Amino acid sequence: MNVQHERIATLCQALKLDRVPDHYSTLAQQAVKDDLSFSDFLEQLLQHEQAFRQQRSRELLTRMACFPAIKTLEEYDFGFSPGVPKALLLELAALGFIARAENIVLIGPSGIGKTHLAIALAYRAAQANVKTRFVTAADLMLQLGSAQRQGRLKEYFNRAILGPRLLVIDEIGYLPFGREEANLFFQVVAKRYEKGAMILTSNLPFTQWAEAFHGDSTLTAAMLDRLLHHAHILTLTGESFD
């Protein structure tokens, strides 16, 4: 390593230009070969740094989202489940619903790929540098209950519920909620209402949601009113993948 390279590396470290020290020399040689101007070389160098930062950001947001696995729309077998609205899903994959703070609710029987589709849309969001979080309804209740017992409920809401631009809650209705859990879930929906987008999946039609929320039809109706006010409801039909 020559002295000038050391000085460049030190300056790049101070300026947090992580990619430049390892690649400026190669890009400079290519610029000479292609007879590029200094400005063209500088632009290419900065584009290279920007691309690296964007990729690093996407990887970080994907890890922070806590996906149980990476799923994509391209991997989903729409031919196996003709009742799944492919055109609408591809439209939603443009992610406009996030900017509008709208919700997506995937309703259908077990094994049809609701979780796959929810992850695929959320993964698309993370790749677009949207802060995203995935959690099952059961895990969400455990975390909310723990935060409440420890006196950290407000902190938890600010960080884990209001922090992500997109919140995915999977498997609503698989396990019934107690009264306190139902109230906490209502707070999740109420606090994100018209402020942040959500994707929810459930094997229960809306007429049966009260059964999952401690039989509280009043609370369930108020929650659904907020949840479905700005929502895309996808009722999925087809054979189970299992």
Please specify the SSE layout and strand pairing.
Blueprint: H1 3-14, H2 20-33, H3 38-65, H4 86-92, H5 96-99, E1 103-107, H6 114-127, E2 132-136, H7 137-149, H8 153-161, E3 166-172, H9 179-192, E4 197-202, H10 209-212, H11 217-229, E5 231-235
Parallel strand pairs: 1-4, 1-5, 2-3, 3-4
Helix pairs in contact: 2-3, 3-6, 7-8, 9-11
Structure write-up:
Helix content is 55%, strand content 12%. α2 (20-33) packs antiparallel against α3. It has a five-stranded parallel sheet. By secondary structure, the protein is an alpha/beta fold.
**Architecture per CATH nomenclature, i.e. the level-2 architecture of the largest domain:** 3-Layer(aba) Sandwich
Q: Biggest sheet, in brief?
A: 5 strands, parallel
Radius of gyration: 23 Å
The CATH topology assignment of the largest domain is Rossmann fold
Total number of helices: 11
Order of helices and strands: HHHHHEHEHHEHEHHE
Q: List the strand order in the largest sheet.
A: 2-3-4-1-5
Task: Report the mean per-residue pLDDT as an integer.
Answer: 90
Distance between the terminal alpha carbons, to the nearest Å?
A: 57 Å
* Beta strand %: 5-15%
| Structural category | alpha/beta
Query: Looking at the structure, what is the overall shape?
Result: elongated
**What is the number of independent domains?**
2
Low-confidence parts lasting 5 or more residues at pLDDT below 50? none
**Count of DSSP strands:** 5
What is the CATH superfamily of the largest domain? P-loop containing nucleotide triphosphate hydrolases
Helix content: 40-55%
The CATH class of the largest domain is Alpha Beta
